[in-house]
Amino acid sequence: MRLDHVRRLGGPNVYLSRPVAIARLDLQGLTGHETTDHPGFAGRLVDALPSLAGHHCSAGRPGGLLEAMARGTYFGHVTEHVTLELSGLIGREVFFGRTVRAGGPAEYDVILECPRDEPSASPVVERLITLAVRIVNGALAGRVPDASADLAAVTAVHEQERLGVSTAALARAARERGVPVRRVGGLNLLKLGYGRYRRTVWAAMTDATSAIGMEVAGDKRLAHRLLADAGLPVPEGRVAASPGEALEALRAVGGPVVVKPLAGHQGEGVHIELTTPPEVVAAFTSAAGDGGEVLVESYIPGKDYRVLVVGGRVAAAAELTAACVTGDGTAPVAALVERVNADPARGEGHDRALTRLVLGPTELALLARQGHGPESVPAAGERVWLRRNANLSTGGTSRDVTADVHPEVAAMCVRAAGAVGMDVCGIDLRLPDIASPPPAEHGAAGILEVNAAPGLRMHLAPHEGAGRDVAADIIGLLYPEGTPSRVPVVSVTGTNGKTTTVRMIAHMLELDGRRTGMTSTEGVHVGGRLVHRSDASGPRSAEMVLGDRSVEAAVLETARGGIVRRGLGYDRADVAVVTNITRDHLGVDDTECLEDLVDIKSLVAEEVRRGGHVVLNAEDEASAGLAERPGVRERDPVLRLFALSPDAPVLAEHLRGGGVGYCVRDGWLTEARGDRRTPILPAAEVAGSFGGHARHVIANALAASAAARALGVPVEVLARALRSFDPHTRNPGRGCVYQVGANPVLVDYAHNPAAVAAVGAFVERRWGGSGVAAVTLPGDRSDELVGETARALAGSFDRVVVYEDEDLRGRRSGEMTRLIVKGLREARPGVRHHPAGDLKGALTSALDMAEPGEPVLLLYEKLQPVVELLETLGAEPAG
Fold first, then answer.
1. Any alpha helices (H) in 345-442, and if so which ranges?
2. Greatest CA separation found in the chain?
3. Handedness of CA 458, 459, 461, 466 (dihedral sign)
4. Distance (Å, rounded) from C-alpha 730 to C-alpha 712?
5. Rg value, the chain, Cα
6. What is the pLDDT of residue 186?
7. In this prediction, what percent of the chain has a pLDDT beyond 90?
8. What does the pLDDT look like over 839-876, one tens digit per residue?
9. Contact status, residue 876 vs residue 807, Cβ threshold 8 Å
10. C-alpha separations of 235 from 300, 309, 445, 448 in Å
11. I need a labelling partner for 393 at 20 to 30 A (CA). Which of 301, 427, 488, 558 fits?
């Protein structure tokens, strides 16, 4: 068995509403084999990973996997379970897995859930799957594989790249509030919300945190000055740039003193309760580093406290205890340290609720001052300090005292946060007791530091006492109760008409006064301006629009390719539109039939908010059928159906049930609610419909109207938008007619059977004949689909010029021409066809073949070369 490749889907996808990885396995010699074909395999596998015995599998109870292997199951399925088990062993909490056939008979896809905030470039999942394959292969070879070393290496990577405790808590709190969350790369930086409601947090620092406040908090001397100016108690202190100045400060301040870096953090380089010149000189050397300055300040006796202030109020408070061990009369200090570190809550850095104890130079020096070393044995009950500073980052612990904070202490902390200008900050205090008013005596209490981006671990999961959901307080500061975090999102999918429908909806919303972000196959637009040119119908472009803080509404073209290859770029939409689902892209990305397309595109209808709106084509069986899918029904959406004919059976039944629909009635685009009818505008007045002849454009207008009305756009705005939707300026490349000499040239992107048939029918209605077609088709479709599209062309055109696009998409030169010509002849043996080398040759030949006044249809792959060619031919926009 071999792992071919792994790809990730970062957003909601056809398998799960959360990210997944898809691993393509080649079973090679195991094709068709089951576990029962290899005696002893299951036993060796469980010996290697004993916890596999608890896997439920489809049985829904512990031991289900063992039963499946005993009955006989395929090795792709076994690899799925092994990978999930390895994920659990490294603390990667994922539970969903599925194995499906893919490609050839030996190929399977193993679909595995990924943590929401795991970086998209993370190597962890691929390394886990690779290890799973190695374990399965080893068990098949008669061994009991030992994966401990490899698993330890993957664990280290996972621990390093996963969100820190504070940031993970913020992500959780935001999601519980329904706020969208997206992590930026591998950073502890989160994007929250959509559009105009976008906010960002970096750990406990928000985008509203004052830059000046950050600078002040990082400069202890300046912070003390501002606090003292506000009348708040701070230790007396001086800055020293040399050992001599440090000794002068000791004499001036009077011992005991604290020596710490002027711009230090997390308790590093802090030396407490020093009284002698040698101690101060040694502390200066440690704290100053390479030529830095230190702060020498008076030592304040009492207990260490951290008070978290969020938005001008105390959110939590904790009493801190420095790193220490307690003797039992038999174990040496080093063994006591290891005993403490066995607590699974302790980890490296900030990844766990507590930090592991170490015996470094600072700890050894403090041990020596207490008459101990790593191998000495403290007496039973003796507390041995490893650190004097009480930071969690150096191994300290916390006890929640939020309920004990005296009102005067709380007021002092709130004033301190205000003095430095911080929205979220941690106040470090030393007091006799936080439950009592601060003593008035000089030096009996003091604010030691004001911390920007304070760690939340001590409050979320204190060593003693109840945890405080301070992350929810911070999210509440960013999004006060009643404040939205999302802009309206419309997601449009389907086989034909997506781009036109998206552009129509965006135009309607803009005329309604909403600054709209739009994605389409031509690029990303914000406020009607192109901001990024590309095929922008996938998740990256959706994220671009939803991340723009000026956007008040988003309209997203959501194409099949983006869904299959990366998932959705949003977590849920307010309105989902499915224009139709017909045969296209077959043979691409393992999409083999219409049912595969339905499964893919249905995701857009399934990922709407509960009670949102789903717009479906009542005249398209596949689109209309989505209303009955369980994933759609469970969202309890408002269904808005559209159809060209008011007598379409699905629409008529929907209206009889009191539903909302859109159709053409007596020549007018009409909104129907049960028995009530509201005319929108005459179909002949829809710009780009050529007096109503382009019926597919009318269908797009109905779909767009349904979506816009779902967002509350008035009917009169719809009418104004549809009248002004000039195709040349607002819908380039879709149904645009140019006059080239004596002939009208219709430029369109039709490239599948349904689209080609619709365009052909329009040409016959508008010009009363078939005309000439100059065509290219994308080479990444199956031969069958290319032939079907060519046959649809032959149904409307008796003269066809065939050319190939510059991008052959894996085809050999001339191959597509032969396939298209073959399909044309099958449908219309007498068709006149002519090959052309390129776009220019094709259009020139088509114009030569056409009689004066006859229309020429030009199908293209890339719009810009078409625009440039038409300019050279002196083409003028025509109606």
1. 361-369, 407-420
2. 109
3. positive
4. 22
5. 35
6. 93
7. 81
8. 999 999 999 999 999 999 999 989 999 999 999 999 99
9. no
10. 7, 21, 8, 7
11. 301
